[in-house]
Amino acid sequence: MSMLSSLFGKDDYPPSAFYFKVVLGATLGMTDASFQEVSGMNAELDTETVIEGGENRYVHTLPTGMKSRSLVLKRGIAPFHSPLVLWCRSVFELDFIVPIVAQPVGVYLMNVHRLPIRAWSFANAYPVKWEVEKFNATSSEVAIENITLSYTYSNRLI
């Protein structure tokens, strides 16, 4: 049995979606906080319809480029000193006095041995929406914040 098959054995397939980590470029590889959910990890093309002159049986659908991309991070409201909170504050609360700093973001799906079994990188990400979910006096749920990041492109690494 090879080392890779022992690290990525049959216990890792199909992978579970509940054990993952998110790493921001500004945190120097450290995880910022525990996230409840990550969504928006997709790729989709914009297309245009072209009708060919003289051929009326069908139309062509041609790619024009990638659709806008958004990565949504959902977690309990983080402390004031969190690198992600500081990054969001620099974008949303400083009235563009300082330039928006884009940074790479990594999402890693982990196995039971705390090793990444799948990984995605998101280039030039920056916050475009920072939302606190509603508070409800009749519920005992954790206060949640959603942070939407726009990014240039993504790659699956593993």
- Major sheet characteristics: 7 strands, antiparallel
Estimate the mean pLDDT confidence.
86
Query: What is the string of SSEs from the N terminus onward?
Result: HEEEEEHEEEE
Architecture, according to CATH? Beta Barrel
Counting helices, strands and paired strands, the structural category is: mainly beta
| Rg over CA atoms | 20 Å
CATH class: Mainly Beta
> How much of the residues is beta strand, in percent?
35-45%
| Regions with little confidence, pLDDT below 50 for 5+ residues | 1-6
The tally of strands reads 9
Q: What is the CATH fold-level name?
A: Elongation Factor Tu (Ef-tu), domain 3
| Proportion of helical residues | under 10%
The number of helical elements comes to: 2
Q: Kindly report how far apart the N and C termini lie.
A: 20 Å
Counting structural domains, the number is 1
> Which shape, going by the Cα principal axes?
globular
How would you portray this structure in words?
With 158 residues, the protein is mainly beta. It has one domain (3-156): Elongation Factor Tu (Ef-tu), domain 3. Helix content is 9%, strand content 41%. It contains two helices and nine strands, in the order H-E-E-E-E-E-H-E-E-E-E. It has helices at residues 3-7, 83-92, and strands spanning 20-24, 37-39, 45-50, 60-66, 70-76, 103-110, 116-132, 144-150, 153-156. The strands form two sheets. Strands 1, 2, 5, 6, 7, 8 and 9 form a seven-stranded antiparallel β-sheet that branches. A hairpin with a 5-residue loop joins strand 6 and strand 7 (116-132). The protein is globular, with a radius of gyration of 20 Å. It starts with a helix and ends with a strand. The relative contact order is 0.22. Mean pLDDT is 86; it is low at 1-6.
